[in-house]
Amino acid sequence: MSPASTQDRFDPLSADFAADPYAVYANLRREVEPVYHSGLGAHLLSRYADVDAVARNPSMVRTREAFLEPEELAGERAAREAAMPNHFRYVQFSLLDSDGAVHRRLRKLLLGQFARHAVKRFTPVIETHLSGLLNGCIERGEFDFVADLAAHVPGWIIGHVLGVPPADRPQLKAWSENIVQFFNAGRTAEHAALAEANTAEFADYLKRLVRSREQRQEDDLLSLLIAAQQAGQLDEAELISTCMLILMAGHGSTIDALGTGLYALLRHPQELDRLRREPALMSTAVQEMFRFEAPLPYFHRYAAEPVEIGGIAYDRGTKLGLLYGAANRDPEAFADPQRLRIDRLPNRHLAFGRGAHLCLGNNLSRLDMEIFFALLLSRTEDIRCLEMEPVYKSGITERGLVGLRIAVRPR
Ligand code: HEM
After folding, report:
1. Can you tell me which atom of ligand 1 is nearest the CA of 96?
2. For ligand 1, is residue 295 a contact (CB within 6 Å)?
3. Does ligand 1 have an atom closer than 6 angstroms to the CB of 328?
4. Which atom of ligand 1 is nearest the CA belonging to 294?
5. Is the backbone peptide bond immediately before 58 cis, with ω within 30 degrees of 0?
6. Which mutation among 362, 364, 368 tests ligand 1's pocket best, with the greatest number of atoms within 8 A of CB?
7. Is-contact 94 242, C-beta < 8 A?
8. Which protein residue's CA is at the shortest distance from atom 40 of ligand 1?
9. Sign of the torsion angle spanned by Cα atoms 180, 122, 372, 405
10. β-strands 35-37, 42-45: how paired?
């Protein structure tokens, strides 16, 4: 992200934006045409209908490589590879950052593993893991929900899904957090160096794990990917980058969803009471938590062909910003959008995106959240927020709380 120009309508790194991005989104939605933001280099789409249409449109792609001249592309790739060889190979290339046939081939390998019925089989292990985490915190009575609890949820579960042995799973949290430093809006040389070193370490670890597992198939994603590699359906770099993407896409986003989900319930006490009384509403409640605070509120597309949005024509190569977080609060799409309503139906929110890149982990993260909140509410009689104004992370690409100190009374 380049620095925002003084003419930009808002600064995504400001404390004001972090405190209330929804006021900015409401202004953007009211504009006649999508606002161009120089810092993001994109025309920002904020209305549900526009975001939904572009995300579904197969001519809207993730990578700009298709628009570069061959020499320009080769030069750009060589420079990126020389600066950060491991990060370039395993993180900057991924299923998420590919389009067309490559994207379809890689995505197809994983689809079955992440279907709703397939992830359901993880229910007992998720319950056992979350139960153990919750017991420790509930005994303490007062704790930071984000750092002491939520932060320990996804790494372990994704490690299980991938096939990482339990003893190695705590390390996944650090790898994931350090590798994504590269995507920080305020990235420094130290962030880049940390990301590169951690990518190299994680890649070495995965290669060793693959070697140890080549002769021993198990019921996990790694076995599935190893079999696909042996059948010539993907190469080693793609296997490593897919494992890394699964961890990084699901780690921070799940922590943020847990934190903002609980805080939304605490700010809507009648909804929280109702959920305690009617646990059958858990599934719609979790979907509403995702609508209310989209953990990954901003992605982009490039127009591979000229496109018209809301009567405005955009050239081939134009970068369009998809504000999933703004679309989810659009009054044209959701009645009373600023309120959390745990029984909201239908709820066709865009927190998991839409179209070709629809989140592969959406069923898993919904299951994690459903199990987590069911356990939390059944084990506690009361949950109190100990902070007047919890602080949100800055930036437009993530939406999550820095911390959330709470006190719980056990049941
Ligand atoms: C917890 C909350 C999560 C949220 C809010 C979320 C959100 C998203 C969104 C919005 C996209 C689409 C990006 C785009 O439009 O360009 C996406 C893609 C993706 N997500 Fe998630 N995600 C979450 C959790 C997970 C988990 C747990 C996993 C894996 C275990 C995962 C794996 C992926 C993958 C692999 C993609 C790329 C799909 C593709 O490009 O075809 N996500 N996610």
Report:
1. 40
2. yes
3. no
4. 5
5. no
6. 362
7. yes
8. 96
9. negative
10. antiparallel
Extract the tokens encoding 121. 């089989």
For the chain, the distance separating the N- and C-terminal CA atoms, rounded to the nearest angstrom, is 47
What spacing in Å lies between the alpha carbon of 365 and ligand 1's midpoint?
Answer: 9
95 lines ligand 1 (CB under 6 A): yes
Cα of 245 vs centre of ligand 1, distance in Å, is: 9
pLDDT at 19: 97
Q: How confident is the model at residue 1 (pLDDT cuts 50, 70, 90)?
A: very low
Please tell me the distance from the alpha carbon of residue 256 to that of residue 294, in angstroms, as a whole number.
Answer: 9
253 in ligand 1 pocket by Cβ < 6 Å? Answer: yes
Tell how far the Cα of 269 is from the centroid of ligand 1, in angstroms.
30
Q: What is the pLDDT at residue 107?
A: 98
Q: How many A from CA of 361 to the centre of ligand 1?
A: 6
Residue that is written with structure tokens 């009374």 in the block? 409
What mean pLDDT is reported for the chain?
96
SS3 state at 328: coil
Q: Do 107 and 225 form a contact (C-beta atoms < 8 A)?
A: no
Query: Which amino acid residue places its CA nearest to atom 17 of ligand 1?
Result: 359
Of 100 and 183, the structure prediction assigns the larger pLDDT to: 100
CA angle, 129 then 130 then 136, to 5°: 100
> Which of the four pLDDT bands, split at 50, 70 and 90, describes residue 5?
low
Picking from 299, 86, 41, the residue whose alpha carbon sits closest to that of residue 178 is 86
Cα–Cα dist 114/112, whole Å? 5
Q: Give the Å distances, CA to CA, from 292 to 222, 329, 346, 348.
A: 34, 7, 14, 12
Question: Among all chains, which residue has been given the structure tokens 């509410």?
Answer: 377
Residue 3, pLDDT above cutoff 80: no
Residue 67 banded pLDDT, cuts 50, 70, 90: confident
Ligand 1 and 247: CB distance under 6 A = no
Nearest to 239 by CA among 135, 46, 95, 340: 95
- Tens of pLDDT, residue by residue over 375-404, are 999 999 999 999 999 999 999 999 999 999
What average pLDDT does the segment 4-13 reach? Answer: 82
Beta bridge partners of 111: none
Residue nearest to atom 28 of ligand 1 (CA): 361
Residue 283 has a pLDDT of: 98
342 lines ligand 1 (CB under 6 A): no
